[in-house]
Amino acid sequence: MGVLADLAAAQRYLLNNQDTFLELFTEHLQLVVFSELLAIAVAVPLGIVATRSDGLKGPILTLGNVAQTIPTLAIIALVFPILGIGFLPAFVGLFVYAILPILTNTITGIEDVDESTVDAARGMGMTDWEILRKIQLPRAVPVIFAGIRTSAVINVGTAYLAFFIGGGALGVWVVGGIRLYNMAQVFAGAIPGALLAIGMDTAFALVERRLGGEALQDGSIATG
Q1: How many domains does the chain have?
Q2: Burial 92-115 (b: 16+ CB within 10 A, else e)
Q3: What CATH number corresponds to the domain at position 173?
Q4: Which of 104-108, 116-120, 172-176, 196-200 has the lowest average pLDDT?
């Protein structure tokens, strides 16, 4: 009954603070979406480069592992002297933290394409770029999107840390509610974040299945 009472109190808290909630939720969503889009734009090309150069693969993976190893708050602290407080340093921290799952899955997805398929395409006279575009990337789509899904869900939770650097987002309610032991406020900030994570994961799963099916069909046509 205690949890149900807290949930009911959280609902009332949301209704009584709708404007503040919309502001915090918008900040949270912007942090996650923009940092994720930039991470995709950086990590996917880096992953492709890594599969094309053994000499660069090690340094690229090391860079991604280091980015994932450093806690987000530590990254924020490192950029704080340069960027100050607010949205931007929180965005940078999320972006850096989002890279590794996308990077590693891009490399894995491309390298796991059946070698006989690649050899057959090469035997048909395809260039390396054509093999990448028509054979390897289409078949790697499901694996790449699995990395994007993982990265996005992680970012939804990590975005709560923006509170500590003045970046706003739903962490304002969650951390503030914990400090005040106001469980209605905590739930009002935590539940929307959980629903956002579920929603993003579901959306990416749908896109993954759609693109994966279309890509495999195109790849089959290309090698047929």
Answers
A1: 1
A2: bbbbbbbbbbbbbbbbbbbeebee
A3: 1.10.3720.10
A4: 116-120
